[in-house]
Amino acid sequence: VLLAAAFSSADFAVGATEQERSQMYGMIAKMTAVAERRNELIALLGAGTRNMPGCLSYIISRDLHEENTIWVTEAWDSKVSHDASFSIPAIQTLIVKTKPLVADFSKVTEIEPVLGI
Amino acid sequence: VLLAAAFSSADFAVGATEQERSQMYGMIAKMTAVAERRNELIALLGAGTRNMPGCLSYIISRDLHEENTIWVTEAWDSKVSHDASFSIPAIQTLIVKTKPLVADFSKVTEIEPVLGI
Q1: What interface predicted TM-score (ipTM) does this complex get?
Q2: pTM of whole model > 0.90?
């Protein structure tokens, strides 16, 4: 719902300059869970990331080919909102709780979500 | 909206076996546009992919670090719906129209979206 609204306003602002329109921000991240703890990690991430101001979409997926791999795809109304999320006490707690379950984390790339459903 | 509903029903089915609950399907794809035609490619993809049965989310993003790169993140109610989309005449037309704008396409991975907002 939030994402659809954000894309609608982006469509509306197609004629605006880069500076006039606000730039969305996103990330594609790959996480490798400690063996046999992938579902536990997904459950923690899912419960812990529901109320982040400015977060338009946060989708957690299992890799279909690598048994310990999780993908997180995020869309935010701005990079400022994304960066601010790390100051939320609940998110700091989440990071501490998930740490023993994460064998590897790689930020695959930073993106600007542009269009979508 | 569609994605939220799908995740709600997935939550509801947590106690169900793998076979009882329907498995969502998704993909993360990286496309390299022909030089200086990235925005044109994004516009074509955005307009052409709005009405695909079973598609819960289809987000098109610019890579913030590689000037010709686009990321497409997709969530579907099933792999069957995804595969069937290639039989839709409008999608076949879209593939033909976008072909001259695409220098490279790589399916980064196939995923099962599990939880999200």
Answers
A1: 0.86
A2: no
